[in-house]
Amino acid sequence: MSFAADILAGKSAIVTGGATGIGAFIVRKLGSLGAQVGIVSRKEENLQRAVVAFKADDGIEVNYRVGDVRDPELISRAIASLAEQQGGMDYLICNAAGNFICPTEQLSANGWKTVIDIDLNGTFHCCQAALPFLKQAKAGGRIVSISTTGANFGWPGAVHAGAAKAGIQNLMQSLSSEWGKYGVRANWISPGPIKGTEGVDRLIIQQGLAERSLERIALGTFGEGDDIANAVIFLCADTGKYISGAELVVDGGSQWHRR
Ligand code: NAP
Hints:
seven-stranded parallel sheet, binds NADP nicotinamide-adenine-dinucleotide phosphate, Rossmann fold
């Protein structure tokens, strides 16, 4: 799929966890369509390496700040500082997340709390920090959270992430309702497994689940990072102006409820 080359000219986007995996695909797509993009995550070396790669591969200048989404004050400062540098913020893409496989009966309280803290609390902190800027977005601010199909059917072995992502989906619905008066749209994308990512490598391939996972996908293949990036563009550009509180499933027709 291709969009007009300047479809996002003059727009400003912030992508959490934008240095790696799906986030990096989203950054490349936003930047190549004309948006200014800022990324934020914990590890400065990841951020620096990504900024160099975005410039070398795609000719995109990407701004970055170090920040942990679990810390409301720090992440708020990082987001505000990026938005100020970029002359405002039109799009917030909540992509940062943590996850690991663990049977629920062995999951420690700390393991549960850590994932809920990054995924659910982190998304809440970023949305609150972004709101003053999104309110000013001329064509209406957009929040797009990256969820997962695992939130819709339960996620045995990753209950912390499944519950956190289900919470994010409900958060997006509530924000769409509360912040519609500010012109802010809040939606979420639920990807199925996306090849070449940390998520698929650690949670599926290393667990020996690749064949079983592929059998459950109607289109018979894992998705690509660009499939998610294209969905983000659809929701952020003018094409998404009347969509709020909605889920966009991008999973090749997966049948995850068939266990
Ligand atoms: P990834 O490469 O591990 O990306 C996660 C990003 O989040 C990293 O860049 C990481 O950067 C950042 N991050 C983690 N903890 C953070 C924190 N406390 N504060 C700030 N940033 C933090 O994973 P991915 O597989 O591309 O996944 C990206 C998103 O897609 C996630 O929301 C995931 O749940 C979702 N998803 C992925 C798949 C898949 O197949 N991969 C499927 C469904 C949904 P630092 O380490 O620098 O902090």
